Write the structure tokens for this entry.
Amino acid sequence: SSRQIPKQAALRRLLPEMASPAQSEFLEALYKALGKVGVQKPQCDFDDQRGNLVLNVGTGSDGVTRVVPVTALAPQYAACDSENSRAEFVAFTAEAFGKGATDVPREFQGCGNRLLPQLWPVGKIMALQLSLPNGAEVPHCGLHGETIQLQSERVEDLVECVGVVLVCEYLAQIPGSGPMPVETLVLASDLMRWGIGFIEVLEKAMENLRARTKSGPPAEKRWEYHPSGCAQSAWGDHFDAVRAALLPALVARRKRPEGAPDQGGQVVAFATPSCALATTSKNALGLCFMGDTVHTKIKPDPSRQLLSTAAFRLMKMRDAGEASNHPLSQKAGEGFVWRWLPYVPGGPPLQSSGEFSVPIDAGEVEAILNAAEAGKPVPVFTHEGSGTATAGSKAASVLETFAKKKEAANAFFKAGEFVKAIAAYDAALNVKPLPSGAEAAIAHANAAQAMLNLAASEEDETRRQGCAAEALRRGNRAGELDPTYAKAHARCAAACDILGEVQAAAEFRSRAEACGAAAEQKRETASSCASSSSSTVAPPSEAAH
């Protein structure tokens, strides 16, 4: 199946920049080895932002794009103890990636136990979705099977800092370094070729995840405990976080080896694919260790593949019956299902007293440890968006937060970093409640213009049309939020020009001109009123104020 990777540097910069080791020797050796299996250097494109080598193999409907994780492979190449072992390593890598051993199978039955669910940051899903040609999609859903709108108007209603995707795992048996797992994303085109829907494929992937879990460590060895009482997943196969998220009973049933009771509800961080952290809401030191690990150790290190810094509360909730047959609906007893909610100490729905916060920086970690060592009350920190602030203070900060995020987006736009600008505009739109429909319309319209700018610089016609289609969607949303906003209609017209929709472009231009004329008339009326007011002499009693 085709794997379209963005060639524009702007699209690449939306994804996290990774530290790149010295890898020129490995790359040059790999280029030569790839040539021997029929992949020539002009078919290769090295993405230095992510440390991947993109191979464009075949043409037309037979075209395939494969990604070689050079950042992960180069250190292993350097660790080989002889010239022969390095040559074997390179030859095997070229064979595995150049001849398509890592591809998603053409037939569904060929996936076998290689088909698995995986967690991806929603930003990563969005970045890839933006890079795909018009009509191509990344099948995904939320942790409970809910639909994730990548530019959602109500993000707080969705557990969407991470999403669920499907991958096909290939274990590359590389000489001298053991198996190296390679995960290839399953796209909508794969589902169409198989003739099977996303839910059915996800169900099979969940069966495989359960089977792998059962064949792995026994229950008492699935978690490793820090002295603080915080547990870290011990599978270590790159599917730890997705196990904890989609098989929540693994979290609910965990027990400390010494049998010490845990106070409070289960709190989990899906930190990296290979690291889930779990503790309880009334364990101040366990939460402190969780925050310290995620925010001060994993987050600053790009090589750790951060999934999410958010903490989630595991809840047993009544089954409304709406999605009881969904593969991700996990029963928690008769009439109950497991649900993940953003963790807020003392927050809804339990509003339990005596709960502690997860620190988000070294200062908070130090304050918690100092208080615990001195036998003083442990501070509970309130973080923006946590829901613990009063309604008044939260409402007062909304406009300022939105303005700051929109200004950051405008800065990216002015610098020509249009994909970063789009992501930043969406971050502003995620501030809830939005200050007004008009403010949201401006952000959507600016994002539409950023898409139009990407379309203007795109040489590939399919991608150019894809950018235009997204610009039309965003511009149309702006027009829905504020029908009087001329720029919203003008950007829809520009998008229709690219898409060849002549009549629609004319209609949008007509709306833009009408809105512009109405706005100009309004300005003239306001100016006239202001002039009249300034020429009026106030009565003496009023003039004294």
Summary: Confidence is low (pLDDT under 50) at residues 1-21, 152-160, 386-396, 529-545. The CA atoms of residues 140 and 165 lie 5 Å apart.
